[in-house]
DNA sequence: GAAACAATGAC
RNA sequence: GUUGUCAUUGUUUC
């Protein structure tokens, strides 16, 4: 059914070119970072996201003027001398669909631009070497591919799922381990130092400064890449053990052939994460179950078909009601496609819309 | 091909 | 009303 090919991790031409240049390139990363072209691209991205101001109150709209007034030149020379100190991020809590809160850390606009510029430099160095089973926060990859990959693994007689939930992953990333991973590919001391400063920049919670001795801020443009660099070790470990799995950020699922194997794997991986990556597995939310009972990125898997998880389905039904109340029959197919393009992979009979 | 806009999904 | 990142899709324009 799916002739939808999942891209391999083989570097594309752009990456290959830069990798070949790596030695010269790498000693010079900090200068690359400050290239006007790189910074301009970073600013465009930050602007397009239309985010809110950080603790300095500087908005996206006011930022270009700030740049022109020479403040950027001062900032740049501080950066070049290694004397630039990033501001703390602003704490904002937003509701999660499950009723919990997501803690965001919003950097100032200028720090978002600098972080974005760093991410643009680091991505070609790291991303081409990430696991084929890692789907979150990566160019040319998305949740749909992750779900299809899981379905394909299940077809290979792996009917049991190990759902692993990392508690507060982003908040608990270990700085030392992360920097160690970074040093493997980044030799530029100035760049490493700057990234370290961003990790330790702290958080403002109601005008109260809180140090950040661990974790990466959810809201920083660099954070998604750093999280993937951190969990790349896990991917490589799982691969070396011959496991079949898919990972989307901190959400990952390992497919095995029996409950017993699953229990063993969960235990082993839990210990690996605790000792090697200093990450805590949430035992309450982790489970070994038949794939039909599993949940990954809002989907569940039954008899080779991808289905919505009950909760996701409920939300979908609400959406359908709203859309179809007015236009029922006019363009059902189009509406359905708009609501959820992955629909054609779902067993509609069994979900009984 | 590029660059704007919007809306959706994941965290 | 407040509110980040990443990815994707669609539209438009040249």
TrEMBL record:
Highest taxon in the source lineage: Bacteria
EC annotation from Swiss-Prot or TrEMBL: 2.7.7.49
Metal-binding found in the keyword field: yes
Domain Reverse transcriptase positions: 75-301
Classification via InterPro entries: DNA/RNA_pol_sf, Group_II_RT_mat, GrpII_Intron_Splice-Mob/Def, Reverse_transcriptase_msDNA, RT_dom
Keywords from the UniProt entry: Antiviral defense, Magnesium, Metal-binding, Nucleotidyltransferase, RNA-directed DNA polymerase, Transferase
Single annotated GO MF: RNA-directed DNA polymerase activity
PROSITE patterns noted in UniProt: RT_POL
Catalysed reactions, semicolon-separated: DNA(n) + a 2'-deoxyribonucleoside 5'-triphosphate = DNA(n+1) + diphosphate
Pfam families: RVT_1
Primary enzyme class: transferase
Family membership: Belongs to the bacterial reverse transcriptase family.
NCBIfam families tied to this protein: group_II_RT_mat
Protein name: RNA-directed DNA polymerase
Organism: Shewanella vaxholmensis
């Amino acid at each position: 059914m799916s002739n939808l090919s999942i891209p391999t991790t083989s570097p594309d031409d752009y990456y290959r070119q830069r990798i070949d240049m790596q030695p010269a390139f790498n000693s010079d990363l900090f200068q690359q970072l400050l290239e006007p072209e790189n910074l301009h691209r970073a600013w465009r991205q930050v602007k397009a996201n239309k985010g809110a101001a950080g603790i300095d109150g500087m908005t996206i709209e006011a930022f270009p003027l700030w740049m022109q007034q020479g403040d950027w030149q001062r900032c740049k020379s501080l950066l070049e001398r290694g004397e630039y100190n990033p501001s703390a991020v602003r704490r904002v809590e937003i509701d999660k669909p499950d009723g919990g809160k997501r803690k965001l850390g919003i950097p100032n606009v200028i720090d978002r631009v600098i972080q974005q510029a760093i991410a643009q430099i680091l991505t070609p160095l790291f991303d081409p070497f990430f696991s084929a089973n890692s789907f979150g926060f990566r160019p040319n990859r998305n949740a749909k591919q992750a779900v299809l990959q899981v379905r394909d693994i299940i077809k290979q007689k792996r009917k049991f799922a190990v759902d692993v939930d990392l508690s507060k992953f982003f908040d608990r990333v270990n700085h030392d381990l992360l920097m160690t991973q970074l040093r493997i590919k980044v030799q530029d001391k100035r760049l490493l130092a700057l990234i370290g400063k961003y990790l330790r920049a702290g958080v403002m919670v109601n005008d109260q400064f809180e140090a950040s001795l661990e974790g990466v801020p959810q809201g920083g443009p660099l954070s998604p890449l750093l999280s993937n660099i951190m969990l790349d070790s896990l991917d490589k470990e799982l691969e070396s053990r011959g496991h079949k799995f898919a990972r989307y950020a901190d959400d990952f699922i390992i497919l095995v052939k029996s409950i017993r194997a699953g229990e063993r794997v969960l235990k082993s991986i839990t210990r690996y994460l605790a000792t090697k990556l200093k990450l805590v597995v949430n035992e309450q939310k982790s489970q070994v179950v038949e794939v039909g009972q599993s949940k990954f990125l809002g989907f569940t898997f039954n008899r080779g078909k991808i289905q919505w998880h009950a909760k996701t389905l409920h939300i979908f039904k609400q959406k359908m009601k709203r859309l179809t109340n007015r236009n029922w029959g006019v363009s059902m197919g189009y509406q359905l496609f708009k609501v959820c393009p992955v629909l054609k992979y779902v067993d509609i009979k069994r979900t009984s819309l």
